[in-house]
Amino acid sequence: MIVSSALMIWKGLIVITGSESPIVVVLSGSMEPAFHRGDLLFLTNFHDDPIRAGEIVVFKVEGRDIPIVHRVIKIHEKENGNVKFLTKGDNNEVDDRGLYKEGQNWLEKKDVVGRARGFLPYVGMVTIIMNDYPKFKYALLAVMGAYVLLKRES
Length: 154
Fold this sequence. Notes:
The protein is α+β, with helices and mostly antiparallel strands. The protein folds into 2 domains: 2-123, Umud Fragment, subunit A (Ribbon); 124-154, no CATH class. It is 27% helix and 25% strand. The protein contains 3 helices and 7 strands, in the order H-E-E-E-E-E-E-E-H-H. It has a 7-stranded antiparallel sheet with strand order 1-2-7-3-4-5-6. A hairpin with a 5-residue loop joins strand 4 and strand 5 (83-88). The longest helix has 17 residues, at 134-150.
């Protein structure tokens, strides 16, 4: 019942926010000082909202599994209304063209997973710890499983 409730809440957030991933964890220090490793970001992705320079977006690049959280630094708008943009991490020296797929110099709206609308500092550190230390993850799952199996109902 807990799992199905969590799934329903997640799917509801997807519908409300318009983002395929309404909550993400910052995994690197590339956005410091705006966001730190372990910060939990809340995203929206309404397609009617234009992307603006200075906005923080989460995007996926073909060939990479993990979404990237960076700031839009340049907008390139064509006469036909097509908008392309360039991103960069606040703590990085150069723009993200080296992160995009080979031959790609700009991102398009289809690459965006969402835009940062709010955050909770360091709440996502649990996720990072579980990814960095898989033994900790398995131990935590074993303890939770044992608790469920051994807990007596009154």
